[in-house]
Design brief:
Strand order of the largest sheet: 2-3-6-7-5-4
CATH superfamily of the largest domain: Lipopolysaccharide (LPS) transport protein A like domain
Number of strands: 14
Number of helices: 2
Shape: elongated
Order of helices and strands: HHEEEEEEEEEEEEEE
Strand content: over 45%
CATH topology of the largest domain: lipopolysaccharide transport protein A fold
Number of domains: 2
Radius of gyration: 29 Å
CATH architecture of the largest domain: Sandwich
Length: 191
C-alpha cells in the first residue's frame, strides 16, 4: 500500500514552486519599471545642460543653458533650473533671458521662464543697454519672439518704464508695450 503523504508531497512541492515563480516574476516587473508606479518621476536628468541652434549657413542663432534639465514622461514636460537663453544677432547684439526656473514645451517651440526673470539687451551700434524684469517671459525661439502677459519693468540709462505686458522681436529688436504704460525719464548729467 502506498503512503498518502508520498502522493501529496510532489504536488505540494509543484504548487509551492508555481507560487514562488509567480511571486518572483511580479517582483522583477515592479522593480524594473518604477515609472509605472510613479508617473511624476523624471525619466532623464541632465546636469550642466547646453544646447544651441544655427541657421542654414551655420551661424549661431541662440543658446540655451541650464544647471539642471529634468524630463517628465507623464506629461512630456521638460523643466530647467537656473536657465539662460541667449539670442545671438551679429548686428543687433545679444539678448539674454535668465531666471530661476523654466519649462520647455513638448516640441521645444516655447520656453517659459518664471521666478525672478530678467532680460538683458547688450549695447550695440546706436542702441544702449536695456534691462527687463518680470514674473514670467515666454520665449518662442523659432519665431524669434519674447512675450510677457505679466507686468514688466524696463530700465535703460535715463529711463524707467512699466507696462502690463510686452512683445519683443528678436529680429528687429522692436519692443511693443501693452496696457497702462508709465515712463519716467531722467536727465543725463551735463558735461
Amino acid at each position: 500500500m502506498i503512503d498518502r503523504n508520498a502522493f501529496w508531497l510532489p504536488l505540494a512541492i509543484l504548487a509551492l514552486l508555481a507560487a514562488l515563480s509567480f511571486w518572483l516574476e511580479q517582483s522583477i516587473q515592479e522593480a524594473g519599471s518604477p515609472r509605472k508606479k510613479n508617473g511624476h518621476a523624471p525619466d532623464s536628468i541632465i546636469e550642466n545642460f547646453k544646447a544651441s541652434s544655427t541657421d542654414e549657413a551655420g551661424i549661431p542663432r541662440y543658446r540655451l543653458t541650464a544647471s539642471k534639465l529634468s524630463h517628465f514622461p507623464a506629461n512630456d514636460q521638460t523643466l530647467l533650473e537656473q536657465p539662460q537663453f541667449t539670442h545671438l544677432h551679429a548686428k543687433q547684439g545679444e539678448m539674454i533671458v535668465s531666471s530661476r526656473r523654466a519649462s520647455v514645451s513638448a516640441k521645444g517651440e516655447e520656453v517659459v521662464f518664471t521666478d525672478d526673470v530678467s532680460l538683458r539687451r547688450t549695447a550695440s551700434a546706436g542702441r544702449g543697454a536695456l534691462s527687463v524684469k518680470s514674473q514670467s517671459l515666454k520665449v518662442l525661439p523659432d519665431q524669434e519672439q519674447i512675450i510677457s502677459q505679466h507686468p514688466v519693468t524696463i530700465t535703460a540709462p535715463g529711463l524707467q518704464v512699466s507696462a502690463m505686458g510686452m512683445q519683443l522681436s528678436g529680429k528687429t529688436r522692436i519692443l511693443k508695450l501693452k496696457g497702462r504704460v508709465k515712463a519716467q525719464f531722467q536727465n543725463a548729467p551735463r558735461a
